[in-house]
């Protein structure tokens, strides 16, 4: 039985200056996040630049994360492919490599309708025995998995969790009303995390955790303990940073935060480019002001 809950970082993929995989740096990031207390690891997601990785690189990153985690936490891989067939192939390969589960998106590029979207998820659910987290992000990917659609998917027993990133926190209550406790809900939007946890989400697929794992864990722990006043104080400090997670350039922004905190480099893979000019200065100002005001966490 799958019991996913807690903070699951969607980790960045670390690259060398020539944009080749930096296995040592990626492994070091996984190790740091696990040691900080994170409850799971997700590779090859949007933040992991999965769409910029070759098929063999996706499998290499997954294998590396599994070997580094050493069974201490579950390791999931993002599945965001152009066709259902390719997604099924990756799902089967991930199972062979020892992944604990999949975080599955609708097919890329083509905007599927509700019937096509449901068939996509049903087909992938039957392509392996791995549990699935459905990643619902209509803002970025233009396909919406509605509460009614999740009710339709309830018969697929391997679909166990939802990463809700519709940017509408009301959706959480709507999903509970439509599906009861059928799915474990994760918040997938950093700057809605506290609200989502208060409304019943049991997990947080986090982005800024790559650079600020201790603060992310503290907010989660305080919220789960019902200490909302304490959580809110920390959340308000964190909010300017959390806003960096909801930009089309979230990868560049979060990697720059990692560079500033010594948790990674800002190297990205083209067509993404390292930030420059006014945009870079703005993001650096947000990061450095937060670091200057960084609260001291209780031991």
Features:
299 residues; alpha/beta; TIM Barrel; eight-stranded parallel β-sheet; 12 helices; 45% helix; globular
What does this molecule look like?
This protein has one domain: Aldolase class I (TIM Barrel), CATH 3.20.20. Helices cover 45% and strands 12% of the residues. It has helices spanning 23-36, 55-69, 84-97, 114-125, 138-141, 147-152, 170-179, 193-198, 213-224, 228-242, 250-261, 277-292; strands at residues 6-9, 41-43, 75-79, 101-104, 132-136, 159-164, 184-187, 203-206. Strands 1-8-7-6-5-4-3-2 form an eight-stranded parallel beta sheet. Strand 3 (75-79), helix 3 (84-97) and strand 4 (101-104) form a beta-alpha-beta unit. The longest helix has 16 residues, at 277-292. The radius of gyration is 18 Å and the shape is globular.
Q: Find the CATH superfamily.
A: Aldolase class I
Adjacency order of strands in the biggest sheet: 1-8-7-6-5-4-3-2
Strand residue content:
5-15%
Which geometry do the CA atoms define?
Answer: globular
| Secondary-structure element pattern, one letter each | EHEHEHEHEHHEHEHEHHHH
Number of self-contained structural domains: 1
Helix percent band: 40-55%
Give the rounded overall mean pLDDT.
Answer: 97
- Largest β-sheet summary: 8 strands, parallel
**Derived structural class:** alpha/beta
CATH topology: TIM Barrel
Terminal Cα separation, in Å? 33 Å
Radius of gyration equals 18 Å
CATH architecture: Alpha-Beta Barrel
Give unreliable regions as ranges: none
- CATH class group: Alpha Beta
The count of helical stretches stands at 12
